[in-house]
Design goal:
Number of helices: 0
Helix content: under 10%
Largest sheet: 6 strands, mixed
Order of helices and strands: EEEEEEEEEE
Strand content: over 45%
Number of strands: 10
Strand order of the largest sheet: 2-10-9-4-5-6
Amino acid sequence: QVQLVESGGGLVQAGGSLRLSCAASGSIFNLNAMGWYRQAPGKQRELVAVNTSGGTTTYADSVKGRFTISRDNAKNTVYLRMNSLKPEDTAVYYCNTLPVVLSWGQGTQVTVSS
């Protein structure tokens, strides 16, 4: 089964930036929409960004204009560029297909300090 490995998280001050990466062990990117999800403490996991195989992108209202999702099919990798980070962006970030069909990876922790 294809496995997903997220990386790139860390501790950053409000207003800062991070770039997350999601590497897949198999070639699914030409067939599936890929999304970035996040789960904050005590909250349900939510979808924040989607990139379809055709290149269309959509974003949750809470991150629109600040986050950018992109994909490199040759590298089987999806990225999430996060700018103007806010404390409310603090969460564990995961990638997966849309709809979700793969096992979840370990995620990458993003902590934004005020």
